[in-house]
Every structure is written in C-alpha cells, then in structure tokens.
Amino acid sequence: GDQEAGEMGLAAVPGRQAAFRQGLAAAVQYARAVGCPRIHLVAGRVPLGADRAAVADEMETTFIENLKYAADLLAQEDMIGLVEPINSRITDPRYFLNTPHQAAAILEKVGRPNLKLQLDIFHCQIMDGNLSRNLEKYFPLIGHIQIAQVPGRHEPDSPGELNFPYIFELLESLSYTGYVGCEYAPKGDTLEGLGWLRSYWESRGLQHSGTSKAAE
After folding, report:
1. What residues are paired with 181 via a beta bridge?
2. Cβ atoms of residues 98 and 112 within 8 Å
3. Residue from 58, 65, 77, 183 carrying the catalytic annotation
4. Signal sequence span per UniProt (predicted)?
5. Longest dimension (CA), the chain
6. CATH fold for the domain made of 3-201
7. Is 4 one of the catalytic residues?
8. Is 77 marked active-site?
9. How many Å apart are CA 37 and CA 32, to the nearest integer?
10. What is the Cα–Cα distance from 43 to 88, expressed in whole angstroms?
11. Which residues neighbour 49 within 8 Å (Cβ) at sequence distance 6 or greater?
C-alpha cells in the first residue's frame, strides 16, 4: 500500500483489490527469487475516519475475497500465505485483524489449506493473554511464530510478563517444527542481545551451533 498515505497492507481494504493483486504478484517474484515459502498477507487498516464496527463486514468480505485469490496464486508456487493479528491497544489502533480468534474465523471461511496463522506472541498476549490455551487451540492453523517480551517488545529474557522458556517447551511438546521469528527491538547490541538464545541452547543440552551433545 501507500505508506505515506497511512496504509499498512491492503488485503482487507475495500476498493484496493487491484493494488493488492499487483503487490502480491511482486511479492511472489521476490519470494521465488530468495526461496522463501511463506508470504504475509497484510490485512491493512480501517479507513481513516471510519467506524470500525460500521465497516467490519465489508472489510471481512474484501479480506476473504483477496485471501482466496492469494491462496490460488500461492498454490501454483507451492507457497503458504500467512495472516497476522496485530494488537490494536498499543501497536496499531486501526489495524483490521486484531486477535487469533478473528483470524481463525476468517481462515475457516476461506477454507484453503495453504493459508495459515502467523501468531505473534507479543500481540496475542496484549489482546487476549491465555497463551497456553490459545497456542494449543490454534496450533493446527499456525504457520509461523514470532516472539517479543511484553510490554517492552525487547528480547525474551528482558523484564516483562512472559515466561519464554515455558512457552518454548510448550511449542516443543506440540511438535512445532517451524521457525520462531525474533520480532523484537534489541535493547542494545544485536549480538549481545542474543545471549538468551545461547542460554536456552545450553539449558536444552545443545551447543551454540545447535548440535546436540547427546547425539555426539
């Protein structure tokens, strides 16, 4: 979308379907070039000055229409489309897709196996909490996970509300095999900030390279 005009994604924005399709085609080209199998289909914001409740049905209809189009296109490329709820309490008050419940309901209506939930633990905690049950409930829909501590959105071992060692063990117990994206702002130096990962590897009996000592 037009970021200078305040747009952040177009997938659910009425009247912008042509621009969404054009942007998706470009994204597919980039993803193909770098071998990326997943594309985030960014929903977009409630139009400035509009009442969220008044435009909710029209935006959902647009979102479903665009997601079906995207799913068909991505299936030809053997790619996955992702939708991510972004919290409206802190990060983006006008963002259309706010909770995993809303995302799951929309994905059910679309009904395409190559569309998945991009679950950002930061946004989920702010909007709903109940992380363990939500991870278990929506696990079959999850195609990507992102993490950040709440409320500062820094490293997972920074002061905050979330117990990330527990969350990581829960993901392991659910047999999650995908990537965990570090969607946080480092408090300082990026490499120093990755000390939490070294500590986690060591707690799990892994070397810094990720190889298992037991396997050796």
Report:
1. 146
2. no
3. 183
4. none
5. 61
6. TIM Barrel (3.20.20)
7. no
8. no
9. 8
10. 13
11. none
